Amino acid sequence: MLKIHRDICGYCGCCVSVCPEGALELIDAYLSVGETCTSCGICAKVCPLGALEVVNEK
Amino acid sequence: MKSKYDVLVIGGGPAGALAAKTAVEKGLSALIVEKRPAIGAPVRCAEGIGKEALQEFIDPDPRWISAEMTGAGIVAPDGFFMRLSSAMAGNKVGYILDRKVFDRELVWKASEAGADVAVKSRASAPIMEDGVVKGAKVEYCGKVSNVKAQVVIAADGVESKFSKWCGIDTTVPAREIMSSVQYVMTDIDIDSGATIFYLGNEVAPEGYLWVFPKGKRSANVGIGISGRKSGEGHRAKDYLDRFVQKTFPNGKTIEYIPGGVSVCRPLECTVGNGLLIAGDAARVVDPLTGGGIYNAMYTGKLAAEVAADCIGKGDLSKAALMKYDQEWRASKMGKSIERNYHIKEYLIKQPDEKLNEIIHSVSNLNLAEFSTLNLIKEIIRINPKLVLELGALAASLR
To answer: What is the ipTM of this complex?
Structure first.
């Protein structure tokens, strides 16, 4: 699943623009992840700050 | 905020502001909804704009101009510096804006002309009737209201969602998002009259690093790298921190600005039934420079003009609104996006040695007209071999 490090996130929306599933949305200063997220990791790769991480589900 | 408008504009940036202002000037009612609690903040921009481009829309005002530019410089991957100046020495060629004040001014002008504005108000879903966009659900402090409109202009920026909800694919390919970070720095030694661009795989892979003056000893120091070159340990922030430590070790960072800039081709189609898409949301950023302020204002204004025309004729179908799409593509802006897309695609494929060679060939350029097109033309004139490498594109540059 996609983990958002909210202490790092600068709520810029870079990740939202590349999400092929439309799963991310920037609600003012809060990045939300929807159910359509497939944990593909594209957002985590492009994040300029390293605020996103795909972690293995337990 | 009323429950019905002629034009509903989503986003209070330059595209949205120009769209709303133009709509009300055409005698229509218009509302801007801005999800942020303030217009103009947080800034997601390096704030540069050409002198003529700006003046097409608004007269420069010291209240929102941070610095005036008289030249530019490019630093090659090997450190070689190439100076660009205007043929008329001391001539202003562009501005670095203060977007917080600039955006507010544009929205103020729209509201003064008669547009309504709602901040901290987020369009959370389109209202659709038989496949036609008829407005949006707008959330404000946990309350949802329906705002109906004859036409919606989506100007919701790089993180745009509205058109996606209406069934239009707006996804930016990872390789075509510039993953970016910028620091507003003070107490640094800079040339306060010139924008400086640093190129090279070590400095900014498939992108560039910029120093855009904001005053005598202050500047926007930022970087954009291709999303495909980004990853753990080598992100935009890592590159920028390395540069700042080396170049401005005693500078102070007074603002921390992450962002994404699309450098892909514009959306395949920027209209739908009852919908027009403008600015960054339409992906009309200049793919070579990453500049988007002018293109946003241009498309925002044009979208409202076409909307007004179509409202007058009572036809808001995609086919009728296509006039907007066709007109901006055929415009100087549309052609320049297409051309600069090819130049960008060529340049990002060149190794550092090639970039060094090109930049070394021109140590000092005096441009009659200060534009990226003229810069490229000059470079080609001095390196005739490039004509062959650029292929068919070169013809359009002559």
So the answer is: 0.97
